Amino acid sequence: MLASFDYAVLRLVPRVEREEFLNVGIVVFCREKRMLTARTHMDEARLRALWPALDLELVREHVHAVERIAAGDPEAGPIAGLPQHERFHWLVAPRSTILQTSPVRTGIYRESEDLATRLLEQLVLTSS
Questions:
Q1: Is the dihedral of CA 95, 100, 104, 108 positive or negative?
Q2: Ramachandran class of 6: left when φ > 0, alpha when ψ lies in -120 to 50, beta otherwise
Q3: Model confidence over 77-117: pLDDT tens digits?
Q4: Which of 30, 31, 62, 85 could connect to 5 by a Cys-Cys bridge, CB 3.0–4.6 Å?
Q5: What is the DSSP string of the chain?
Q6: Which of 83, 7, 12 is nearest to 47 (CA)?
Q7: Which tens digits make up the pLDDT trace of 5-29?
Q8: Cα–Cα distance between 71 and 67 in angstroms, integer?
Q9: CA-wise closest residue to 36 among 95, 103, 104
Q10: What pLDDT is recorded for position 78?
Q11: How far is CA 106 from the centre of its chain?
């Protein structure tokens, strides 16, 4: 069975004024399947190359907060308690901070695939 989905790439922009970024995750929402998920991966060596003084632990906390909010974790604060579609729109809203998202894009979801893993592999993980 096919269903449409929306997704955005989570980007770390270490120095906003330089407009350089590194993809660190994805946020995926499929209303028909009642699915909202975020998957992340931080390539610390590449992040250090862009910004040697980056506080990786602080960034890691914020990146993981995206996963927790998407999952509706009550410990993630009041935003995590919103309905899925509201959480998705909050997560992908434009920001001028070091953690930003790409424009929202759409696709077709095939139920037999692990959509979030596929997108993470295609858009975030680097191939050796």
A1: negative
A2: beta
A3: 999 999 999 999 999 999 888 899 999 999 998 776 788 99
A4: 30
A5: -EEEEEEEEEEE-SSGGGT--EEEEEEEEETTTTEEEEEE---HHHHHHH-TT--HHHHHHHHHHHHHHHHT-GGG-GGGGS-HHHHHHHHTS---SSEEEPPPEEEEEETTS-HHHHHHHHHTSPP-
A6: 12
A7: 999 999 999 877 888 899 999 999 9
A8: 6
A9: 104
A10: 96
A11: 15
The predicted model scores a pTM of 0.89
- Please report where in the chains the tokens 């696709």 appear, as a residue: 107
For the chain, what is the radius of gyration of the CA atoms?
Answer: 15
Give me the mean pLDDT over the 41-56 stretch: 89
As beta bridge partners, residue 108 has 4
